[in-house]
């Protein structure tokens, strides 16, 4: 982004603020180029103090912005689109939606404007530059796809996928953060049962999980290849692994991800009361 461009984040909650922090931390833009909105604007006071623009008036934010990020809940989207409809100009703004379960076409149909819409599915690790972000569009130009990918590449890794896979990407990557966090938490609880203080157990489990992920990412190897290096014959690793599998470890993760993806496809429309 150049110094004259602004990005509006409509719906500055968990993911909207994580995105804002990530973009500023990566030096993509200054806080004063980011316009944060939410209805309870007082909750954004600490961001206003840091130099971000804040407002509860979405139309004001859209008018100033080159890139408009939609980051409300699926059930809050229709009201938001009704509000910004009069100020969306197809030739001016690029819409980026991080909203789960809402297609580019759903958004254009509601706005009745042929604006470019690019979907991005990041996760909360975006705040520390470690997101896995999936990008999809049905009408974005290559130039704008490249722009959006370049934004998300500075705050993690992005890939472009077909739009029909976005609900699957939501489950695997966006919800996935929670699934891996819960497994680290479970490992730390096991660690406490076998003798470590809770804070030590959590740190040890988290660093071990990071090492496991980096083995795959840095060596481009397969999990089973790395597991084979850990499991000594008649050893304690295979004993522990098999006990976990007898209790449904892999099956629970697979079923959870499938259920999550199904739910992601059912989130919209379901307007907030
Ligand atoms: N959390 C995550 O890890 C991820 C979430 N997503 C998607 O991002 C979206 C947001 O999720 P999340 O950040 O968790 O949800 P949050 O509830 O934390 O954030 C939504 C924000 O939108 C604001 N909001 C609601 N209505 C309006 C409105 N009309 N105008 C302006 N702001 C509004 C709310 O504040 P207020 O009530 O004050 O208006 C709230 O701060 C969802 O669609 C979700 O599917 C995608 C990837 C990852
Ligand atoms: O739980 C949710 O619905 C959102 C979508 C992805 C992450 N959080």
TrEMBL record:
<keyword id="KW-0963">Cytoplasm</keyword>
<dbReference type="InterPro" id="IPR036291">
    <property type="entry name" value="NAD(P)-bd_dom_sf"/>
</dbReference>
<dbReference type="InterPro" id="IPR008927">
    <property type="entry name" value="6-PGluconate_DH-like_C_sf"/>
</dbReference>
<keyword id="KW-0028">Amino-acid biosynthesis</keyword>
<dbReference type="InterPro" id="IPR029036">
    <property type="entry name" value="P5CR_dimer"/>
</dbReference>
<keyword id="KW-0521">NADP</keyword>
<dbReference type="Pfam" id="PF14748">
    <property type="entry name" value="P5CR_dimer"/>
</dbReference>
<dbReference type="InterPro" id="IPR000304">
    <property type="entry name" value="Pyrroline-COOH_reductase"/>
</dbReference>
<feature type="domain" description="Pyrroline-5-carboxylate reductase catalytic N-terminal">
    <location>
        <begin position="7"/>
        <end position="100"/>
    </location>
</feature>
<comment type="function">
    <text>Catalyzes the reduction of 1-pyrroline-5-carboxylate (PCA) to L-proline.</text>
</comment>
<dbReference type="InterPro" id="IPR028939">
    <property type="entry name" value="P5C_Rdtase_cat_N"/>
</dbReference>
<keyword id="KW-0641">Proline biosynthesis</keyword>
<protein>
    <recommendedName>
        <fullName>Pyrroline-5-carboxylate reductase</fullName>
        <ecNumber>1.5.1.2</ecNumber>
    </recommendedName>
</protein>
<keyword id="KW-0560">Oxidoreductase</keyword>
<dbReference type="Pfam" id="PF03807">
    <property type="entry name" value="F420_oxidored"/>
</dbReference>
<comment type="pathway">
    <text>Amino-acid biosynthesis; L-proline biosynthesis; L-proline from L-glutamate 5-semialdehyde: step 1/1.</text>
</comment>
<comment type="similarity">
    <text>Belongs to the pyrroline-5-carboxylate reductase family.</text>
</comment>
<feature type="domain" description="Pyrroline-5-carboxylate reductase dimerisation">
    <location>
        <begin position="163"/>
        <end position="267"/>
    </location>
</feature>
């Amino acid at each position: 982004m150049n110094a004259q461009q602004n990005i509006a984040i409509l719906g500055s909650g968990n993911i909207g603020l994580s995105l804002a922090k990530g973009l500023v931390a990566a030096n993509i833009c200054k806080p004063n180029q980011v316009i944060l909105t939410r209805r309870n604007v007082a909750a954004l006071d600490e961001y206003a103090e840091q130099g971000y623009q804040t407002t509860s008036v979405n139309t004001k934010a859209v008018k100033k912005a080159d890139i408009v990020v939609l980051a409300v809940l699926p059930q809050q989207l229709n009201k938001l689109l009704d509000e910004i409809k009069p100020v969306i100009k197809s030739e001016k703004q690029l819409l980026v939606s991080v909203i789960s379960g809402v297609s580019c076409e759903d958004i254009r149909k509601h706005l009745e404007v042929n604006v470019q819409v690019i979907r991005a599915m990041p996760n909360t690790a975006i705040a520390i530059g470690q997101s896995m972000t999936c990008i999809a569009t049905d009408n974005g130009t290559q130039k704008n796809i490249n722009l959006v990918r370049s934004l998300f590449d500075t705050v993690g890794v992005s890939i472009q996928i077909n739009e029909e896979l976005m609900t699957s990407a939501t489950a695997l990557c966006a919800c996935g953060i929670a699934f891996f966090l819960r497994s680290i938490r479970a490992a730390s609880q096991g660690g406490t049962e076998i003798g470590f203080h809770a804070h030590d157990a959590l740190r040890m489990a988290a660093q071990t999980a990071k090492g496991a992920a980096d083995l795959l990412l840095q060596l481009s190897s397969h999990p089973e290849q790395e597991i084979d290096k850990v499991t000594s014959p008649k050893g304690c690793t295979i004993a522990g692994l098999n006990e976990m599998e007898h209790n449904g470890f892999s099956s629970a993760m697979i079923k959870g991800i499938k259920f999550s993806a199904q739910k992601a496809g059912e989130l919209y429309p379901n307007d907030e009361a």
